[in-house]
Amino acid sequence: MLTMESFKNFILAFLGGFVLIHLVNAQDQAGFISISCGSPENSSFSEAVTGINYISDAAFINTGISQNISTVYMAGLQQQARDLRSFPQGIRNCYNINIMQGTKYLIRGTFFYGNYDGLSKLPQFDLHLGVNKWDTVKIENVSVVVIKELIHVPSQNYLQVCLVNTGLGMPFISAIELRPLNNKTYVTISGSLALFGRYDLGSLSRTVYR
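^ Malectin-like domain-containing protein, sequence as received from the core. Prediction below:
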């Protein structure tokens, strides 16, 4: 039988867990720039799994076409990867993003093909940061997300993320994310740092998390 005292303890424990869950979901996103490419103009959403707030890319670029991936690949996929912007015209198409000059940023580009065009043709194209080549994006599986990351300190109060057509398929992008970092993190004498790998050393599970 549940006594009044144990009922009170249950309520306190429940409320404590409830508050903790909401504190995790309502993480501090100060300085975050989270762009869902191809989302409807002026739209925004909070991603259900991470609680991260995303906005449409329409204010950052005036070229390209908004597309949706095939419904076949949507199950279990985070919302920012369900839409994308493709670039059938022009060799070089750039996003213009205002940032804090001199702040160290983790810059992430996400690419999920998901057979959005119904052609099942896996593209390859280049990704530039400003005038400099960042990396080559090679889509090797219709249902596998490709992520490119760079740590960069901008010398201006804006930066350009550019998709470059190299003749091997139409460029596209699903999401662009910028996260401010402590300036003492990942110190480099000059230039930017590209992600090689990220590992959870000592983990006994194969859980993927952010």
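The helical segments are 4-25.
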